[in-house]
Design a protein that fits this description.
The protein contains 23 helices and 26 strands. The chain is globular and about 75 Å long. It is an alpha/beta fold and 742 residues long. The strands form seven sheets. Strands 11-16-15-14-12-13 form a six-stranded mixed sheet, with helices on both faces. It has a five-stranded parallel sheet with strand order 4-3-2-1-10. It has a domain at 626-740: Sandwich (Immunoglobulin-like), CATH 2.60.40. 55% of the residues are buried. 30% of the residues lie in helices and 18% in strands. The chain binds alpha-D-glucopyranose. Alpha-D-glucopyranose (GLC) binds next to loops.
């Protein structure tokens, strides 16, 4: 729904705001055109996170006043050196702002963002970002390029690991929390960093899940699927937004005036910095929408994009464009004003060295509290996909055979985008189980790349045969997800299935632990392995967090933020699908069988696979049992001024305490545009002891019913709605209807 951004200046106390505005305006008046353009130039210091571009010397560029911000610097010492050059040796003395991709932890690495989202607990996402900011700010970082808020419906795309899954509402709640965690209450504090909502917008819709591929989406799809998490970040006061690489309406996001100036700035009220992605300005030439960097620079500054990450287009072309009268200097001033406001809000004018404190660095990084926080988030991120015959948790005194190279791979536990993460900081599953179990045998069985040789296989079969339980670590390498890591085949890499086939042949029960950065197509595993625990890439506390679940010290509460397909052929697959004119799902037809007669043929289905995913959005098992009763609405009719209250009683009827994620979906039955079969609108984690019950209430208003109508506006249209309460998108326990009247 339309929102109004909280700008950085809005978030400052009045006196601070006046100081920052006054300092910014006086600097703007002092800087030459060349110096102003230099502020908009961002260069890469040490390690590239993208294609090779320009080779401007960073130090010389800073000295010459040609650089306003730097990314990917090596350490605090180098950061301090760059800042000294800018403040004490350059002509203008304007401090730099220093950036790094701190995505899921800085040195204390947390689960990958998709895993954090699986906690369905925004406070876990906020905690992770808070710890990351505390450590990054102690390590010289002013600006993190996070959170990624791309809604992903295609697990072939490697960057689904980096955001919060397939649903706009869950992604909004998680992304808002991440921004709050990073930015805290005061950007000038020494434990906060500027956040950056990325990649604006629609990057998750890359065709065929192929990285950097074409995106071709409608305005309705943009506004209802991809935009909401950005709006949620604006509501949290995010101080920067990053252009996506992709097109919208065949125009690259970086030079797309409709997206930046019209939608983001004018309609949504975002007044702060828009930074390009890595060379995304320069890539206009590759897209074929600009003939040279001069055209690139003009198009991007006119669209409202401020900071040029490594393309050099602004640095080499903008001065001349202004001098030639092609670009009005006021556009440069507006962009520079926004970047200087960031520097003011960060407190860099008062103390450019406030984030370079080696003593604070040693005190704040990788502390026990931070490790405990990482373990807590990693516990809550795990999803029990299956647990036949209560294979898990491990019985006391049981002998366990642990198999799989990933169980012993520290580096893979850090996932992609690991910032300053160090494999030496990781406690692996093997290390923890060896410490906490009396009878553990570890056999590699398959390498962490999934390679299996006969000898390893034989040794694994022998060890598993002799044990009471097999715990088998399978999945991807961390480098098989993240940026530039699309995969067309989503089964377990290498020969891991061969290993599982051999182990399930023994009489020993098998529990698989999945390490992965995306949903996988594991239908064989789902059919033959009795227990499957989704662990994602859990970070430095991988071993303790997974052992807490395997050994029953923590009852798994995670739910899938993104569904698992039966096969790649179903992709894109997501729960909040449109009905189509020939819906198959609501017919009592068995879609796992070929059509038996014409009546079953002419409907939206496949001949060879079901429409439904292997594991649905919101799916997650538990070691206890929860029942839902007394689902009710406090009224059957509301107007746009009313509130509707949905209540449900949840009872823990099992033997263990646990957490149930109660989910509330809406279905708008008739509207001026086709509406999804259900859309998540609320959820709540309910902690219940064995035998305990609780009544949970959710308040809905007409704002929750709004969508992008056929009149091209956000509105709630009168009519009948279903409230669907459940524990997963495919496990709705009750449906109640109400009507919105004029
Ligand atoms: C990369 C990524 C972006 C990241 C930037 C700087 O290409 O697309 O998410 O923030 O470059 O590392």
């Amino acid at each position: 729904m339309a929102t109004q951004a909280q700008t950085l200046l809005d978030q400052l106390p009045p006196e601070r705001r006046a100081e920052v505005e006054e300092r910014v305006e006086s600097l703007l008046a002092e800087l030459s055109l060349e110096q102003k353009v230099g502020q908009l130039n961002q260069l890469n210091a040490d390690f590239a996170t993208g294609t090779a571009v320009g080779d401007m010397d960073v130090e010389q560029g800073i000295l010459d006043g040609d650089i306003g911000s730097v990314l990917n610097f090596a350490d605090v010492e180098e950061a301090r050196h760059f800042q000294e050059l800018a403040v004490e040796e350059s002509d203008h003395g304007v401090p730099l702002v220093l950036a790094l991709d701190v995505i899921h932890g800085h040195r204390t690495i947390f689960p990958i963002p998709l895993g954090e989202a699986a906690s369905w607990n925004p406070e876990m996402a906020a905690l992770s970002a808070r710890v990351a900011a505390t450590e990054a700010a102690a390590d010289g970082v002013h600006w993190t390029f996070a959170p990624s808020v791309d809604v992903g419906r295609d697990p072939r795309w490697g960057r689904v690991m980096e955001a919060a899954g397939e649903d706009p509402y869950l992604a909004s709640e998680i992304s808002n929390a991440r921004v709050r965690g990073f930015q805290g209450e005061d950007l000038a504090a020494d434990d906060t960093v500027l956040a950056c909502a990325k990649h604006y917008v629609g990057y998750g819709a890359s065709e065929a899940g192929r990285e950097y591929n074409t995106v071709d989406i409608s305005e309705t799809n943009l506004r209802e699927v991809h935009l909401p998490p950005f709006e949620a970040c604006l509501d949290a006061g995010v101080g920067s937004v990053m252009n996506a690489f992709n097109l919208y309406e065949r125009i690259p996001a970086s030079s797309n005036e409709t997206l930046v100036n019209d939608l983001l700035r004018s309609e949504l009220g975002f007044e702060d910095v828009v930074v390009s992605d890595w060379n995304s300005f320069g890539e206009l030439v590759e897209h074929g929408v600009a003939g040279d960097l001069r055209e690139v620079a003009r198009a991007c500054i006119e669209a409202g994009s401020d900071v040029d990450m490594v393309s050099g287009a602004y640095a080499t072309e903008l001065v001349e464009l202004v001098e030639d009268g092609v670009v009005d200097e006021s556009l440069v001033d507006a962009a520079v004003r926004r970047l200087l406001t960031v520097k003011g809000a960060l407190g860099l004018f008062e103390d450019p060295y406030r984030y370079f404190d080696e003593e604070r660095q040693s005190r704040r990084i990788l502390t026990e509290d931070h490790r405990e926080a990482a373990r807590e988030v990693a516990r809550e991120s795990q999803v029990l996909l299956k647990n036949e015959s209560d294979v898990l948790p491990v019985d006391d005194g049981a002998s366990v055979a642990l198999v799989g190279g990933l169980a012993d791979s520290a580096t893979d536990m850090l996932g992609a985008w690991r910032a300053e993460g160090d494999p030496d900081d990781v406690t692996t599953l093997r290390t923890t189980l060896a410490d906490r179990l009396d009878d553990l045998t570890y056999v590699e069985g398959c390498s962490r790349d999934g390679a299996v040789d006969d000898a390893q296989l034989a040794a694994a079969v022998e060890a598993v045969t002799a044990a009471d339980l097999a715990v088998v670590a399978v999945g991807e390498r961390y480098s098989q997800t993240g940026e530039a890591a699309s995969r067309a085949h989503l089964d377990l890499p290498g020969d891991q299935r061969r290993l599982l086939e051999a182990l399930v042949e023994t009489d020993t029960p098998v529990a698989a632990v999945l390490f992965n950065g995306r949903p996988l197509a594991i239908d064989w595993t789902a059919e033959h392995v009795p227990a499957i625990l989704e662990a994602w890439f859990p970070g430095v506390e991988a071993g303790p967090a997974i052992a807490d679940v395997l050994l029953g010290e923590y009852n798994p509460s995670g739910r899938l933020p993104m569904c698992f397909p039966v096969t790649e052929g179903q992709i894109p697959i997501y729960y909040n699908r449109l009905r189509t004119g020939r819906p198959a799902e609501n017919a009592d037809v068995d879609l796992t069988e070929p059509p038996a007669d014409p009546a079953e043929k002419y409907m939206s289905r496949y001949l060879d696979v079901p429409n439904e995913p292997l594991y649905a959005f919101g799916h997650g098992e538990t070691y206890t049992e929860f029942t839902y009763t007394d689902v009710s609405l406090d009224t059957a009719t509301i107007t746009s001024a009313d509130t509707l209250s949905v209540t449900v009683t949840v009872e823990n009827t099992g033997e263990r305490s646990g957490t149930e994620v109660v989910q509330v979906y809406l279905n708008d039955l008739v509207a001026s545009r086709a509406r999804p079969v259900r859309e998540l609108v609320r959820f709540e984690n309910v902690d219940l002891d064995a035998g305990e019950a609780a009544t949970v209430s959710f308040e809905l208003t007409a704002a929750d019913l709004e969508f992008w109508t056929a009149d091209d506006e956000y509105a709630a249209e009168p009519g009948e709605f279903e409230v669907q309460v459940g524990r997963a998108a495919d496990d709705i326990v009750a449906v109640e209807t109400f009507e919105l009247v004029e």
